[in-house]
């Protein structure tokens, strides 16, 4: 009887120790995000003519971007990271981020964004004005993947009218290679 009780106690103790070790070994900060990933970014922006609060807004679906993403540690003690996104058929985009606990916060940066706009009167003709946007956001890690929630703010000019981005819904899924 005593041996059966001891076996149960040892089994429960072993499971408890395993759980404590698993939780304590969870990476946080820079080591949690460092790595090489394959990514895809997609989403929408909502625009209206600049300065015209009464104008109707238009929601525009952006072209998807995909490629390889590298996240490297710039300073482990502060959590500073550098993110490089090599976009297929495009350029390389780099920006800074700060890893704090289980969150990677994007340091605001500026980028050029192609906005697909349908031509009036044209059948399936699309113009691609360039918008200058400021990007902010954050990421969290789920198993072997990162999910970024991003916000774009900025303007572009099309047919002589300046448009402002008044809302955005952008996400980036990055799976570790």
What are the SSEs and their pairings?
Layout: H1 2-24, H2 30-33, E1 35-49, E2 58-61, E3 65-75, E4 80-87, E5 92-100, E6 103-114, E7 117-118, E8 126-127, E9 130-142, E10 145-158, E11 161-176
Main sheet specs: 8 strands, antiparallel, barrel
What is the radius of gyration computed over CA atoms, rounded to a whole number of angstroms?
Answer: 23 Å
**Separation of the first and last Cα atoms:** 52 Å
Poorly predicted regions are 19-25
Give the total of domains: 1
CATH class: Mainly Beta
Helical residues, percent: 10-25%
Structural class by secondary-structure content: alpha+beta
Main sheet strand line-up = 1-3-4-5-6-9-10-11
Name the average pLDDT: 88
Q: What's the shape? A: elongated
H/E order of the elements? HHEEEEEEEEEEE
At CATH level 2, the architecture is Beta Barrel
The count of strands amounts to 11
Beta-strand content estimate = over 45%
* Number of alpha- plus pi-helical segments: 2
Report the CATH topology name. Answer: Porin
């Amino acid at each position: 009887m005593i041996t059966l009780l001891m076996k149960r106690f040892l089994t429960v103790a072993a499971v408890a120790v395993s759980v404590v070790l698993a939780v304590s070994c969870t990476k946080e900060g820079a080591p949690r995000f460092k790595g090489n990933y394959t990514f895809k970014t997609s989403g929408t922006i909502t625009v209206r003519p600049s300065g015209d609060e009464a104008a109707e807004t238009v929601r525009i679906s952006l072209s998807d971007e995909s490629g390889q993403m590298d996240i490297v540690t710039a300073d482990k003690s502060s959590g500073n990271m550098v993110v490089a996104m090599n976009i297929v058929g495009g350029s390389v985009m780099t920006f800074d981020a700060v890893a704090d606990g289980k969150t990677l916060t994007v340091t605001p940066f500026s980028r050029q964004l192609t906005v697909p706009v349908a031509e009036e009167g044209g059948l399936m003709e699309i113009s691609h004005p360039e918008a200058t946007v400021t990007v902010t956001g954050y990421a969290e890690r789920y198993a072997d993947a990162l999910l970024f929630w991003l916000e774009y703010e900025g303007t572009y000019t099309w047919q002589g009218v300046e448009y402002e981005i008044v809302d955005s819904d952008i996400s980036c899924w990055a799976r570790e290679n």
